[in-house]
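Listing S7. Sequence submitted for prediction.
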Amino acid sequence: MSRVVRFGRPAVLLLFVVLFLMPAYVLLVTSFKPLQEAGPATAWNLPEQWSVSGWTAAWDELRPGIVNSFQIAVPGAIISAVLGSLNGYVLSKWRFPGSDAVFTLFLFGMFIPYQAVMIPLAGVLTDMQIVGTIRGLILVHVVYGIPICTLIFRNYYVTIPDELIESARVDGAGMLRAYASVVLPLSAPAFAVTIIWQFTSIWNDFLFAVFLGAPDSWPVTVMLNNTAGSGAVAVQYNVQMASALLASLPTILVYLLLGRFFMRGLMAGALKG
């Protein structure tokens, strides 16, 4: 029985991996096919003639959106992580009357549907004269990222011994000095989690971008949607598959390169102390 379990479990896991990677296989092989070979009837076939024409066309169409996505996702992730770190520090180490209520209000922001605030949000951005701009989209993602970032940092900072903060205060450090000298150097795991989380969420966003953006500020997700069904005569399956892979490549690379830091950061907040 133990032998069945020992060999059966990896077999089941391998089966799930194969099922999960089947769509990725179709995306990959179709993206390297010339237009005349790309189609539903030959989706599983390897290309008879390997071609990068689909990738070239996809890059030409998506390049402005990829640039916009980086301009939105990178500062949006960093700013929301920094603000979440400051909020988490105050709510965990410098408690004040009503701090629990404030933390609860922060958490409410995680459960407000985007659709419920889209119209008033557009009005606010219009009054600020940043609707349809990169700056407006960054602001929206920072505001909506603060609750989850605050939650992650607050739960992580609770595990840092209060004695460290008290020692810094005895040495004359104030709130910001204690944060910069004691807490911030210990925050790398939490920053890894929040930045990866925020970067992925902002990069994959479509609703805010299409509703609050403009053609000049559209990220790659909106431009990817616009490529669907493109082609005057035939559907350009090779271009669409290459576009999908190209749009998802940055987030895939982030998880491949930084995935271990993401898991380590999550576990650090759960097990530390």
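Caption to Listing S7: primary sequence and predicted structure tokens for the chain studied. The CA atoms of residues 133 and 217 lie 6 Å apart. The chain has eleven helices and no strands.
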